[in-house]
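Sequence only, no structure available. Ideas?
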Amino acid sequence: MKRAYPVLLGTIVAFFGLHALLFHLGVYAYWVSPDSSTGYLETILYHERIRPKNGPNQVLGVGDSRMALMTKLANSFTPETGYSYGTIAVAGTTPRVWSYMLRDADPSANAYRAIIFGLDNYNDEDTLEDVADRESDLNYLANRLSLSDLNEFAYSYHDPQRQRRAASGILLRGLVYKRDFEDLLHTPIRRFRLVRQSWRDSFSWFYDYQDTSKNLVGLDVDWDHRKVTMPEGLDASLQEGIRRRLVEPIPPQTGLHVRYMHTWMGKIAARYRDSQTKLIFLRLPRAAWIRPDLPPPNPHSLVLGIKP
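Reply:
I predicted one. Tokens follow.
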């Protein structure tokens, strides 16, 4: 029995040592699938790190999939404007994720002349989702969160179960990587080829990307009867998103999203308070149709509450 204790202790030490080596020292992050949330974010941050930055007039775009800053097009005007553009916009991300991404993309908080944030609106309107409980934030940031972030990040969730998952994911990062790691073990050769190709070629994939030619010609809204006539050929998920945005009842405005924005965008603003960097909040085009029942301007929202 006495000999069992050293064996058990050695096994535990070996497990945590191997876990730390693989998942906490950046080794596994290099081989994570570029198609995963973590891999997608890591690829975008890598692109910005290697982007040539000639001169001090650097502008960075931050946002989700709707932040359509086409840097190749914007940089074609650099000889006229003197400004060069980069982006770390990642589909599906939130201001909480942007805060940690900027910490890594701009450690000195002084690398950019301006940072442009793409926002849905300036009212910080509540939606059906409590964004503070968006579980995917942990997956995006798996390689960017450290033990020092545990309290701030985990307890920014409202749901106790998601608080526990966030805390355990920071302490044992392999829990977040579990499915991706299983896929790597199942098809290692395929993964190695995919990752190497992504690190080598993906900058041009994103930089030379040509936007879709799809449109919503033929869409019509009957506000009185809350009915949307869809163009032919739209997939079901897109149709559902359009209906939800245009005609489904607006949730009660409790100020939940206002508090979220003040927490995370406020954290970003505080970080750049003494910097030369200007923060620009850009309201993104939402549609050719504006709901007649939108809430009035909210003086307590992050942007509208800023004093000149």
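The chain has 13 helices and six strands.
Hope that gets you unstuck.
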